[in-house]
Amino acid sequence: MRRGVRFTIPNRYGHFLQEILNTIPIEQYRWSVVDEESYIVENGELNRLLFPDSTIIDGHQFAELLTQHEHYLIFVDIKAFQSDMSSEIVTYEDFLQSMCEFALLVTDSQDVTMYCKDPQMLNSLYENAALHGFGDITYITSHNDSMTRLSCW
């Protein structure tokens, strides 16, 4: 069974969150951002944190933030919910039992891991990664999932 998709993005400034998520109806979700270390880029330099604190942000604000500024991703832990966000998600099993629709994790500026409950959305994320020329794209399955925690740390 496919759990998610894993790929690499270039280690440089860009609009990578927007590119990664462009097949997702961003505005339909509420977004939980936890323990993030990524920066808004202004005048070719790292300026301030993309998300200053662990936060919950609505889809319209999230979409606006992704399109307004170029950013540099170092560590990102973002989870999307359609409704109740009360559960803590530490493991894949927690993810399955939660109201979280998908999780996006970026580590070391270029390693992207996404978990997704909807098989069609998962295929769309895979195809989107290929369309953008991201590297080393693979599906995550129960046989090759090496993550013990759904966290970027």
- The end-to-end span amounts to 25 Å
* Helix vs. strand class: alpha+beta
The average pLDDT is 90
* Count of separate structural domains: 1
- Low-pLDDT residue spans: none
Helix residue percentage = 10-25%
- Along the chain, the helix and strand elements come as EHEEEEHEHEEHE
What is the number of E strands?
9
Q: How much of the residues is beta strand, in percent? A: 35-45%
What is the secondary structure topology, with strand pairs?
Elements: E1 2-8, H1 16-21, E2 30-33, E3 37-42, E4 45-49, E5 55-58, H2 59-68, E6 70-81, H3 92-97, E7 100-107, E8 111-116, H4 119-131, E9 135-141
Antiparallel strand pairs: 1-8, 1-9, 2-5, 2-6, 3-4, 3-6, 6-7, 7-8
Describe the structure.
The chain contains 4 helices and 9 strands; from the N terminus they run βαββββαβαββαβ. With 153 residues, it is of the alpha+beta class. It has one domain. Strands 1, 2, 3, 4, 5, 6, 7, 8 and 9 form a 9-stranded antiparallel beta sheet that branches. A hairpin with a 3-residue loop joins strand 7 (100-107) and strand 8. It is globular. It starts with a strand and ends in a 12-residue tail after the last strand. The model has no long low-confidence stretch (mean pLDDT 90).
